[in-house]
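User: What would this chain look like folded?
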Amino acid sequence: MALPAALELVSVTKRYDATVAVDTLDLKIPAGTYCCLLGPSGCGKTSTLRMIAGHEAVSEGDIILGGHNVTDLPPAKRGTAMMFQSYALFPHLTVLDNVAFALKMRGIDKKARHKRAGELLELVAMTPYAGRLPSQLSGGQQQRVALARALVTEPQILLLDEPLSALDPFLKGRMRAELKRLQRELGITFIQVTHDQEEAMALADHVVLMNGGRIEQQGSSRDIFNRPRTEFVAKFIGGHNVLSDAGQRIAVRADHLAVVALADGIIGSPARLVDAEYLGSYVALSLTLDDGTALFAHVPEDAFDAHPFTPGDRVLATWDPAKAQPLQ
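Assistant: Here's the prediction, encoded as structure tokens.
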């Protein structure tokens, strides 16, 4: 397997006629990192991935991979491989020949390419299915084959375009763990596009949250969740209430918001309980402040059982000011 490579985007811009999809993006991704480009539809994450792959031309700026400027190189010359959202397997080829196809195009003889393809199928636990056609596989199995096919050329960076979007929730969880295991085992750089906050937080060493063609915030999953810098980040990443406190805009995590009975001497914001949902280890409470602001709190099950509330109750929403995150 090829050595991992660092990636740097220098003032990368992508225009489609008058529309700016990616706006002077500066980004450094260390070698061997699992990076997720996260954001809503139209934020520029897929255009960024396709420019890294060479499937979209860069309007302005440079792409530096492993110290080499690859901005104008074709995809096959970049040291990257891309796993597409649709998997794009050849329906008439067996699993083994699908994985070996890129090596065939390079002129590698059948015995050698099948040997290498077999090694990759073993890596993704698909050896028993080598002789099957894609139509005889489940969605998760097709994904494993597509992953093996992308890895067969020994890329320095693997690019993944929403690879889990077509899977059911149970299989998503299994494949997330599989992708993370493979990335650690191979040691190469993975760059994955997703709109799923939970997916990005579970997988990535480095999350790049994009908005309007620019980077809104980047860092570890924990940093972004605990210290959102803007209202957009707090709302998109989820799990936060955005509200005003003494004229300042703040974010308060749902599990840091306490809900107590109205009582003299307790400082808090009066609210009405809208709904209470039991979700196993906690109860999700939906509240509305007197000014109309919607809040939500995640209250531990035992704490809620000790002081249960019902929809319509008047309550107080309180939080520790030290745990509130100021927003820009």
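The chain has a mean pLDDT of 92. If you want, I can go into more detail on any region.
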